[in-house]
Amino acid sequence: MHPLITTRRAFVRGTASGIALLGAAGPGLLGGCNRSAASHTMIPGDQAHLSEHLGFFSVDEPTITRVMAELTARGADAADLYFQHSRDNSITMEDGIISRASSSVDQGVGLRVVVGDQTGYAFTEDLSLESMLGAARTAASIAHGSKAVAPIAYEHGKRSNFYALKQPWSEVGVARKLPRIEHLNALARAADPAVDKVSVSWADGEELVVIVDMHGKIHTDMRPMTRIWCSVTAKKNGVTQANSANLAGRHGFEWYTDERLAFVANEAVKRTMILFEARRPPAGELPVVLAAGASGILLHEAIGHGMEADFNRKGTSIYASMLGKKVAPDFVTIVDDATQPGERGALNVDDEGNATEKTVLVDHGVMASYLHDSISARHYGRKSTGSGRRESFRHAPLARMRSTYMENGPHTREEIIASVKKGIIAETFTNGQVQIGAGDFTFYIKNGWLIEDGKITAPIKDINIIGNGPEALRNVTMVGNDTKLDFGGWTCGKDGQSVPVSQGMPTTLVSKMTVGGENA
Amino acid sequence: MPDSITTTPAAELLHSADAAVDIARKAGAQDAWASVSRDRSINYAFRDGKIEKVEESTSRGLGISLYVDGRYSSHSTTDLRPDRLKSFITEAVALTRALQPDPHRKIPDPALFADRPTLDLERLDPTVAAVTREQREAWCAEMDARAHADKRVISAESGLFSGQSLGASASSNGFSGTWEGGYLGFSCTATVREGEDKRPEGSAVAVGRFLAGLPEPGKVADKALRHAVERLGSTKGPTIRATMVVDPEAAVSLIARALGPASAAAIQQGRSYWAGKIGQPLLGDRLTITDDPLIPRGLGSRHFDGEGISAKRIPIVENGVVRNLYVDTYYGRKLGMAPTTGSSSNRVVALGDKNLTELLAEAGSGIYVTSWLGGNSDPTTGDFSLGLRGHLIENGKVGAPIGEMNVTGNLPALYKSLVALGNDPYPYSSLRAPTLVFENVQFSGT
Q: Quick one: closest CA in A to B93, which residue?
């Protein structure tokens, strides 16, 4: 509630251009949706009639027609209304006590007018006709043409279902969540006598979106999101170490089985205890083995952002002239996929109402496709890849990643490790970043291993890796057959907007990257 | 769109906050703290000869913290329709009852609200709200033209962002306060072509509470273009131990990183290398940092913090010795420490007496860091590793551009090797840091 929050948001926008960030979002950063105890206003379910979805926002078809007419009064190539209602809940246990809980409701409509590659945008949290018309006039001021025809009939678009829940989060009371949080806390505390403190954060929620375009197409989606986060501090011989692990996805309450809670508790404690023995690797250029799973952070930074079509349309990406070119060995295929069920990066329909898909970025070593929103799709004369995403109704959509991963290759993890004379394995990560035009990218390794003469010899910690995107792709020399998506949650930031994403990787060898480290 | 910021008096927001506290009390909360705010923002993005995006909005929200039968929760909503708000708060009180009692949780002590400063912090420049659409477009066009002054420029984005906010807080134990604030900033990023594929970029930003005091927008574009051109021919530097000179803008985040775990919350949770260090040397012997909320026109200036604690200057570090921590009510109680403030305002670094040219001449050789790329640090141990770009220091001057390098070490150890500070604080941040010079720093490169 401090007044500087808005200012800070603007600073990010003012300075982050061309730089994209990725982070393992802390409990406070979870994008998504939720709801408080039990409310009187139920979010309409998947099968609900269109009028129910509109009715939830206290609007109807004639109201939308009036707002759309105002929005397109000066002409538009595209225009849309993005109604969103989000409910988020979080609960924190510290020192064995449920020390706090929070809930939030966020609701509003974003109004967008697109003329060529120019965008006018406004939003309002006040859904009265007067406020929406005012916002529509503001957004429309980007255009200077004659009025477009507003829709007279509406069609409710079909969509996929990659995250159906047995029970919506709005029906799960806090009393059912507390025992799960206490159970995870107890598991982590009991896992090692050196464990000094455990904190558990829980987040759940859902958001209803209704997207109306200027041709009368209406898309609706109900997007759940949840995460449990376990942080551990341990003390041994006067030294303190802390680390954490989390599980995240578009899942419901039933997802939190005893088995999953045991897994995340064990993972958090294991990642913490190994730090007592971990050291820094030598500084300089080394072969880097990317462990299966979270190492997909390399793809996200080294290639994913550079393949977002807006950067290429503007000519500011290092990949702007590489489409159709060979950029990696034949056994490298990289995709960005909205269709992985239950993933943070799963999307039934994108935030412009376009159908989503599995997009192949690199097909057997050849640059295949950018990630398109509708502006770049029009620019390039091709179909949108369903990659138009936005943080909330407060933002215009941008081309963004969803679940980014590499398909399986021909090698095994064992032969990859055995092939390295002196190098490191990167296993867990906290964050990454890329400069789109220069192609330099980084990711920060929290836990990893040293390899000497083909064998794992010691744990390592806290080092940054820096490389150049096209060079790193060229230097992929081996790809394993064990691809998997990371179980933890990731949040991607671009142009001041955060969206949930997923990432994955098979065990992969990059022959040379610059490894932060310390030499004697 | 009607400008609700200027048409909504603060008294009206304060009334809404009072009303929310009232609803909470009637629903059974013993204590409650509510804040209501209105924010208006305008963002222009201009690219290569024309407007690319215009965003304008007025936003509102209410947040409330509840203390119910020894239990605590906090809530926020943007749905302020009276009937919805009433049921939202009533439900939130019911939710709080389902939690566990926490003996450390108490509403902030009203004694901390006393002696609120009254000096004019000059947080709002009325001329910012009066800037016309034509003026905004003209400034953007001016930046765009200047950013394209070099024929190697592929594309340039110029931005103009501004906003104003108005807010009020009220509590069940007598706190009542309002605030207003505004800002305006220019930003520019230029991308230049290098060889077949590389497209290095340079950025610059200037932001302030008052329009007077900001540079001409064209100068911001000049700086962005200069930064982009300086990247041409960048190579990977060597793996060495060497002197590191950090530019003031990059120094802001390096100091913020060191201060990150300087809170009662981090210490109580066992995640801070500041634990047990009050009165002890921690960050070498040259660094002095004061949290100063009372600087007129400061980006972080305030009369009271988020808990209503009256603002005062707080020394954090004096010549490397820890003097105070950021202590809020809750974690202060857990640690048995008196609250100072739970959140930083303006963090002011005591300056040295030399400028960058003199400091580079003294260094002779090493690496001059102009910006960071990624990286992180462990708040518990202080271990850090950061990606960087910048220049070699050759013969005491800025030399060839370098990039794709890391610097790795431990924050307390790094600050022990701080040998000099510049007289050139970065003006566009609430953290005012000058050029920093460190000796014997580990770089990774070729």
A: A37
